[in-house]
Amino acid sequence: MGIPTKEEIIAKVNEYSKKDHSLIEKAYDFAQKAHEGQVRESGDPFFKHPAKVALLLTGFELDDASICGGLLHDVIEDTEYTYEDIKNEFGEEVANLVEGVTKLGRIPYTTKEEQQAENFRKMFMAMAMDIRVIFIKLADRLHNMKTLAYMGKEKQYTKAKETLEIYAPLAHRLGMYSIKWELEDLCLRYIDSDAYNDLVNSISERRATREKFIKKIINEVRVKLDEMGIEAEIEGRPKHFYSIYRKMKEQNKTIDQIFDLFALRVIVDSVKNCYAVLGLVHEMYRPVPGRFKDYIAMPKSNGYQSLHTTLVGESGHPFEIQIRTWDMHKTAEYGVAAHWKYKEKTTTKPIDSFEEKLAWLRQSVEWQKETQDGNQFMESLKLDLFSDDVFVFSPKGEVYQLPVHSTPIDFAYRIHSEIGNKMVGARVNDKITPIGYELKNGDVVEIITSPTSKGPSRDWLNIAKSPNAKAKMMQWFRKERYEENVEQGKEIVEKELKRLKLSFNDLFKPEWLEPLMKKYTFSKIEDFYSAIGYGAVPAGKIIGKLKEEYDKAHKEELTEEEINKNAENAIQNKPRKAPPSGIIVRGIDNCLVRLSKCCNPLPGDEIVGYITRGRGVSVHRSDCPNMNDFVDNVDRLIDVEWYQAVKSAEYVVSIEVLANDRKGLLGDVSNAVSDVKAKINAIAARVMDDRTVLVNMEVQLENVEHLTKTLKAIRKVDSVYEVRRKKG
Questions:
Q1: DSSP 593
Q2: Residue (of 55, 134, 52, 149) closest to 101 by Cα position
Q3: In this predicted model, what pLDDT tens digit does every residue of 620-673 receive, in sequence order?
Q4: Cβ–Cβ under 8 Å, residues 688 and 667
């Protein structure tokens, strides 16, 4: 592709703005002359880049000043011309846009949280001064990513990672999904090139089948809409590579196991027709429970509106349909950029609408000027820059990032274990504060310690919010209160055995206990009791493992008569109320059901039941490795399903994390899990010979969707390169 011509750019602008565009023509000529003789890494004339950026900006239907800003955005940085030169030639508005983009380009990329907070603050300040600065910067980054192939490998990776961690999320926050998706796909090409190429090849191979399926669905929906007299545009599109890649990683699946690789979009002229179309498609195809989202009634914070529903076609393959109006579609594609043109109008309503779209941004920083000293910096960060985290300060002005809802206890252990262990109180903003106080952005927190402190109270485990703080407290309890923990552990075990109506000798056989002792690195039985006593290992999990061995040893074969009787009972009534287990067994509502510990099924998993002797039906995931053991007893398998109304039950899932070893890794992983409202029951880490770390966790979750969020959160942790749910 050559350099976009002046005429091309003007023609695009004329499609949405019929007026004199001589300023754009002047900027084109000025930039072309300024960059004359400069060449990019690709060998192309340098001017090709700003011309491409300007052309991208016309897609957002931006004003002439923005297009000029795109053409001139590298002039101050890479030529002899200054801000004053731009101001004299094109006016203060254009000069400020160019200077704003230039300043953003000088922000170094770093993973240190204090500096990263400063980077975001500067970005938000630039947006506050003029949101068009970010539009230009995003277009600039998009074109740079498209030409990244000419850079060295190291620079490719760094730029892609920076884009994925800063610019793509920023585009998402602004609702500019067309930019976000393209940036993410380009990043994947350089961050995981093998996965990217495999995806491209796999999807290309399935293209004919996919297009046939999409065409069939579109035709079926179009016929029904014509019958209803609803005018609509229907289009089918494959899901973006990064979206598919992320789903494969989060669900630990291959592309062959993911069927909803595409989505249909229906665009109509009114909100009323959106809901009419929704009712129609739900009549035509079977909706997938839990996969309907009404973003029209409850828009996203960036203004996005649509109805989303996942359906199952005749072939049994799920697909997604998005239903929206034309105005919603424009916002979905271009976000707040779609509303910028209203700023030029004289009526107040569109301007108010635009300001409303940026309400979240207006509350993020102080707009007047860029802060310079420490006090101003602290003030600017008092507002909520990051919705999922809270940033607080030590009396020395050091910034600390904590999970939202954190307390002074979390802050104390974030600084150092000894600070937390010796803590006797806290001051927040120079006032004595309860240790359960919920910290807010910008709070200055001082921890009061005493050398005579007896250590943390067990009550603190219920007050603290971060897994990091809880883990450090449990570590203290393990070391400092060993004897107390042993006695408490014995009491817990005795209660559990009493509940099961079993004795110590029934379960604690040396041949069953030894593998567990080795797994948890217990050197003696007292260590086992202590771990249960201070909460590191759930008693139910250990006892459950021993009970499984006990059951295997006492297993008896069912007679054919018993199998037939169980099968007859299994097909009689539908449940009248929600079963306690959350599982329906062929319509029976009084059947003893237990979720198998070998695979820990979650609501949303495909499941199968296995009829046991004396212990009801054991429920397994359909991909459970132990299913192979049931091949010889196929008559014992029975259909089971999740009860749709079950919502609040919680289930334990085993998660495995692989990461590069670094200080604070476990704390960061724990924080990530806590941020998505999941609870860690147990966590253990082992450093491998190559300095990688294998982390095994038992996490309490609600359903498969909750699992997906949890895996996604862990995957975002720095140094983590693989996260998966363990099958068995």
A1: E
A2: 134
A3: 887 777 765 665 565 677 778 877 545 555 788 889 898 888 888 888 888 899
A4: no
Among 303, 322, 198, residue whose Cα is nearest residue 260: 322
DSSP states of 228-280 = HT---EEEEEEPPHHHHHHHHHHHT--GGG----EEEEEEES-HHHHHHHHHH
Output phi, psi for 250, to 5 deg.
-65, -35
Q: How do residues 683-706 score in pLDDT, each as one tens digit?
A: 888 887 667 788 888 888 888 888
- Give the angle 563-564-568 at the CA atoms, nearest 5°: 120
Burial class (CB in 10 A: 0-12, 13-18, 19+), 688: exposed
Task: Give which of 340, 325, 348, 305 is closest to 16, Cα–Cα.
Answer: 340
Torsion of CA 522, 523, 524, 529, to 10 degrees: -20
Q: What is the pLDDT of residue 139?
A: 94
pLDDT at 563: 54
Which residue out of 8, 25, 44, 78 is catalytically annotated?
78
Instruction: Decide: helix, strand or coil at residue 460.
Output: helix
Q: What is the pLDDT of residues 345-366, one digit of tens each?
A: 434 344 444 444 454 454 344 3
Q: Per the structure block, which two tokens stand in for 428? A: 């927040």
In angstroms, rounded to a whole number, what is the distance separating the alpha carbons of residues 205 and 201? 6
| Angle at 333 (CA atoms; ends 331, 335), nearest 5 degrees | 45
Cα gap 532→482, rounded to integer Å? 11
Q: In what order do the strands lie in the sheet with 692-701?
A: 679-687, 692-701, 651-660, 720-725
Give me the numbers of helices (H) and strands (E) for the chain, helices first please. 33, 21
- Paired residues of 654 in beta bridges: 698
Pairing of strands 318-325, 307-312: antiparallel
Kindly report the pTM of this predicted structure: 0.49
Catalytic, 29? Answer no
DSSP 477: H
Closest by Cα among 402, 403, 459, 401 to 435? 459
**Quick one: tokens of 486?**
């042993």
Residue among 44, 77, 85, 548 flagged as catalytic: 77
Greatest extent of the chain over all pairs of C-alpha atoms, in Å: 96
| C-alpha pair distances (Å), 519 with each of 471, 475, 528 | 19, 18, 11
Query: Is 77 annotated in the active site?
Result: yes
Query: How does strand 593-595 pair with strand 617-621?
Result: parallel
Would you say 399 and 392 are in contact if contact means Cβ atoms under 8 Å apart? yes
Alpha-carbon span 129 to 482, nearest angstrom? 59
Pick from 54, 56, 61, 60: nearest CA to 24: 54
